[in-house]
Amino acid sequence: MTRYLLTGASGMLGLDIREALRERDHTALSREELDVTDLESVRRAVQDHDIVINAAAYTRVDDAETHEDDAFAVNATGARNLAIAAAESHAQLVHISTDYVFDGRATEPYREDAPHNPISAYGRSKAAGERLVLEAHPTGTFILRTAWLYGAGGPNFVATMLRLAATHETVSVVNDQFGQPTWTRDLAHQILTLVDSDAPAGVYHATNSGRASWFEFARAVFASTGLNPDRVTPTDSARFPRPAPRPANSVLGHDKWAQVGLRPMQPWQRALKEATSEGVVKQYGDPAGNS
């Protein structure tokens, strides 16, 4: 029987992966239960597992600008440690990465083989993590880049829009940043679809299909929950300066799925309707703002 190890099990994505693994033999470890920056602890945790899913990450994008060493410790060194241990145990590694490894200046969706060019400390730490896991375990590592995550288990954009809708007549949202809203439950199931297949190791883009600006996403959130989408008004990024620069266009291409005979994830609009109709996204404070 295949045994799974999940790191970062208490995060928003980790909780949905944990639920997807419910009927499978797995060990789920939170940040408090496993320090991925400690190689010997990682080796002990990985031992006797067949598939390691790394959802552990430093995701505080703005804080990373002044705490880059902390971001690198988890996103680069921690990722490398899991790859080393997985290689030693002959286990497969699924490593979750991000659109932030790109600069956001592309005019077409980024291909899986597009070169890194991060513009933030967080992006640099995640790009380093990708390089290190491929160096340590090149034949047994799946890198899944994702973006704009929302789900039931943590702070996220959808939850924040619902909170603001309850306290503000109108909400201003930027219309000059584009990406792919991605439901963590869809991503969790896509991860298992991949490891259950005979697809080769490598880089895959795991976002819900389509394209949206934050403004368009916010209007869809309002509409899907029975609110008037006209309460969302457009603005630009200059109105909301942040410590870390964001990629202006981080739409990811999904060609790799067709190449390996698997379907990409469903359109983001359909995923959002499913998520909100099932009540899995609620008001949950301020957004994490990253993936």
Describe the 3D structure:
With 291 residues, this protein is α/β, with parallel strands linked by helices. It has a domain at 4-148 and 180-205: Rossmann fold (3-Layer(aba) Sandwich). The chain is 36% helix and 15% strand. The chain has nine helices and twelve strands. It has helices spanning 12-20, 39-46, 68-88, 121-136, 157-167, 184-196, 214-224, 255-259, 268-277; strands at 4-7, 26-29, 51-54, 92-98, 141-146, 149-150, 171-174, 178-179, 182-183, 202-205, 212-213, 232-235. The strands form four sheets. It has a six-stranded parallel sheet, sandwiched between helices. A two-stranded parallel ribbon has the order 6-9. Helix 3 links the parallel strand 3 and strand 4. Helix 2 crosses helix 3. The two termini are 31 Å apart. The model is unreliable at 283-291 (pLDDT under 50).
Brief overview:
By secondary structure, the chain is of the alpha/beta class. The chain is 36% helix and 15% strand.
| Global geometry | globular
Provide the spatial order of strands within the biggest beta sheet.
2-1-3-4-5-10
CATH topology of the domain at 4-148 and 180-205: Rossmann fold
- Annotated CATH homologous superfamily of the domain at 4-148 and 180-205: NAD(P)-binding Rossmann-like Domain
Fraction of residues in β-strands: 15-25%
Structural class label: alpha/beta
| Mean pLDDT, all residues | 95
Give the helices and strands as they follow along the chain.
Answer: EHEHEHEHEEHEEEHEEHEHH
Measure the end-to-end span.
31 Å
Tell me the CATH architecture of the domain at 4-148 and 180-205: 3-Layer(aba) Sandwich
